[in-house]
Specification:
globular, alpha/beta
Length: 206
């Protein structure tokens, strides 16, 4: 399978690239800034501003699926997730690429979610400190939900650079407080390979 990866040189994106390559897939990696990925025969890297449709078109050409690990950084636009997904859907639609997997926070709620106290407290803190970040995650999810793509949105609470631990994907949680980036990579790869949780927003939980 050929998988295009947006934000492939980020901490979660690079974990996914490693997992996909180890599983035998071909990866088209979109990077922004310094290329930190190790060379591999099945890896091609592209400089990619995820809010630039031309960059996205070059990145995803010939892919079977797209995985997006865009996150907010110090200098990123306030609505980087929403803008990127909007452009991606247009470009992927023109190319006939249907499968899209994206990552966001548990602050993007669904009816029926089981919300733990710490989940509620941490997301309340984020909504006070950086409300645009939360709004961006919600808006990006709404854009995907209204599309005709075969989307999956993975939801997590707090990412860490820790060894993998057992987890389960649940439609409505509850979430684990801390999630290994390697676990996110595995979850994203699993839903792509097995075509599961299509048009759903599962939470990584215990």
């Amino acid at each position: 399978m050929v998988i295009a990866v947006i934000a492939a040189n980020g901490r979660t994106g690079s974990a996914f690239v490693r997992a996909a390559l180890m599983a035998g897939h071909t990866v088209r990696a979109g990077i922004h800034g310094r290329d930190t990925l190790k060379p591999h025969d099945n890896l091609t890297t592209f400089e990619c501003d995820a809010t630039n449709p031309d960059d996205l078109a070059r990145l995803i050409k010939g892919s079977d699926a797209v995985a997006s690990f865009i996150g907010h950084t110090k200098n990123s636009p306030r609505y980087v997730q929403s803008d990127a997904i909007r452009h991606l859907l247009k470009v992927s639609g023109e190319m006939g690429i249907k499968r899209i997997v994206s990552l966001t926070g548990t602050g993007v709620r669904m009816p029926g979610d089981v919300i733990t106290l710490i989940d509620r407290v941490l997301n309340l803190s984020i909504s006070i400190i950086d409300p645009a970040r939360v709004r961006d995650g919600i808006q990006h999810a709404n854009i995907l939900k209204k599309s005709d793509s075969e989307w999956t949105i993975l939801r997590v609470l707090k990412l860490q650079n820790t060894p993998p631990r057992p987890f389960q994907l649940r439609a409505n949680g509850p979430t684990k407080v801390f999630i290994s980036r390697q676990d996110v990579a595995k979850a994203a790869l699993d839903v792509i390979e097995n075509h599961t949780f299509v048009m759903q927003m599962p939470i990584l939980g215990s």
